[in-house]
Amino acid sequence: MAKIMAVNAGSSSIKFQLLEMPEETVIASGVMERIGLEKGIFTIKYAGKKEETNPVLPTHAEGVQLLLDTLVEKGIVKSLDEISGVGHRVVQGGEYFKDSALVTEDVIQKIQDLADLAPLHNPAHIIGIKAFQKALPNVKQVVVFDTVFHQTMPEEAYMYATPYEWYEKYGIRKYGAHGTSHQYVSQRAAELINKPLKDTKTIVCHLGNGASICAVDGGKSVDTSMGLTPLEGIPMGTRSGNLDPTVVSYICEKEGKTAAEVVNILNKKSGYLGMSGRSNDARDVTAGMEAGDHRCKLTFDVQAKRIVDYIASYYVYMGGCDVIAFTAGMGENLIHLRKNILNRLGVLGVKLDENANNVRAVEQEITTKDSKIRAFIIPTNEEVMIARDTVRIANIK
Ligand code: AMP
Which residues have any ligand 1 atom within 6 Å of their CB? Predict the structure, then answer.
C-alpha cells in the first residue's frame, strides 16, 4: 500500500488528489486557488466532507506546506512519511520525453527549455515541482507529460508541410495534448467492449474548455487534433481551432495589431466565446441556443461539424473504429452536443440511443445494439493515470 499525491500545478493554482495505490482509492482531493493574490481559496474534500478556507498564499511553497500540514491535522495521514511519491502533470514534454520521468535537475531544465511551446503551463509546473521538493525532500517526484501518449504518432501524422528546416531547427511539428486523458479513456473503452487493447480502435473526443480528438489504434495514439500548441484542431471554449493562417496577417493589417496579439485573440477570445458573443461556458451557450439565439446554435453546429470531420478522417486512417468515446466537461455532460455529433455519423452506421444518451457524467453506452460503431460516455481520470505512472517510474512498492 502506498499513498501517492497527483498534482496539477498552474500559475496561480494547485490541484491535488491523494490516492491509495494500488487500490486507486481517492483519500483526499482539492485545489488551492488565487496563489499570489490577497486572499487564496483552499478547498479540500475528504471522508465525505468538503471544507473551504481563505488562507493567504504568497507563493506555491506556502500552498504546498499548508496542504501537507492540513493532511496531518485532519488525520488524513498520520505522518507525511506515508506519502511515497508525488506525480506532477506537465503539459509539454516535446520530443525529449517518450515516457514519464523521475524528476532530476536535468529533467527540470528540459521542461524549462520547452516553455516556449507551453508558456502558460511549463513554468508553472516547475514552480509546483520545486514547492513539493522543498516540502518533501525525501519523496520521489515523477513528471507525467500530456504529450507522451502522442509520441507514437507516425511521422506522416505529426509533420506539417512547412519547410523541413523549421522542424530541425525549432521542433515545429504536432505534439498533441490531453494525452493522459486519451490514454485512460481508450484503455477503459477496450475494457468496456471486452476486447484486447491491442485489437481495439477508439476515437476519443476529449471535449472540455480545451478539447481534442485522438485516434487510438491498439492502445497507441496514431493521430490527434491538437498541434504544436493547443490552438490547433476543433473550436473550443475560447480557442478558434484550425483556420487559414492568412487570417492572422489579414487582421494584423486591418486592425494594426501584431501577430502575437492576433494569436492571443485566437487563443482567448475565439471559439465559443467569440462565436456566441456570450460566454466560453457551454452551459451559457446552451441557454442561449434554447432561447432561440442563432449564433449560439451555430457555435455548436460548427463545433459538431468539425468534430465529425476528425472522426470521419480517423475512421478512414485507422481502417475502422470500435468505439467513439466522449469525455471531459462537455463530452460527459452535454447531451445535445453528443446527439448533434452522433446523428451526423449515420452514414457510418452509428445509431444513437436517445434514452441512454440522456445522462450526465456516468460511464455508459449511448448507441443502440445494432449500431456499427459503439459510443460511450467515459468520465476521464487523469489523476489515476498520474498515480499509476508515479508508482511505475519511481518503483514504489
Ligand atoms: P473541462 O475543461 O473539462 O472542465 O470542461 C469545461 C466545460 O464543460 C465548460 O464549457 C462547461 O460548460 C462544460 N460543463 C461542465 N459541466 C457541465 C454540465 N453539467 N452541463 C453542461 N456543460 C457542462
Answer: 208-209, 237, 281-283, 328-330, 333-334, 360
